[in-house]
């Protein structure tokens, strides 16, 4: 996870971050992906 994603999760919860991953069709475990935030 990127620093921005960790910060978003800290302020808005895991569900908000998970929603962004789903919207952007991001696989969180992909080390070479772009940030969802």
Q: Can you put this structure into words, describing what you see?
A:
- The chain has 37 residues and is an all-alpha fold.
- It is 54% helix and 0% strand.
- It has 2 helices and no strands.
- The protein has helices at residues 3-12, 14-23.
- Helix 1 (3-12) packs across helix 2 (14-23).
- It starts with a helix and ends in a 14-residue tail after the last helix.
Distance between the termini: 10 Å
Class by SSE composition? mainly alpha
Compute the number of strand runs: 0
C-alpha Rg, in Å? 9 Å
What's the rounded overall pLDDT mean? 93
Offer a concise description of the structure.
By secondary structure, this protein is mainly alpha-helical. The chain is 54% helix and 0% strand. α1 packs across α2 (14-23).
Main attributes of the structure:
37 residues, mainly alpha, globular, 2 helices, 0% strand, single chain
How is this fold's topology laid out?
Blueprint: H1 3-12, H2 14-23
């Amino acid at each position: 996870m990127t620093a921005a994603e960790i910060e978003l999760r800290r302020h808005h919860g895991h569900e908000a971050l998970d929603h962004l991953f789903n919207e952007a069709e991001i696989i969180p475990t992909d080390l070479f992906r772009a940030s969802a935030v």
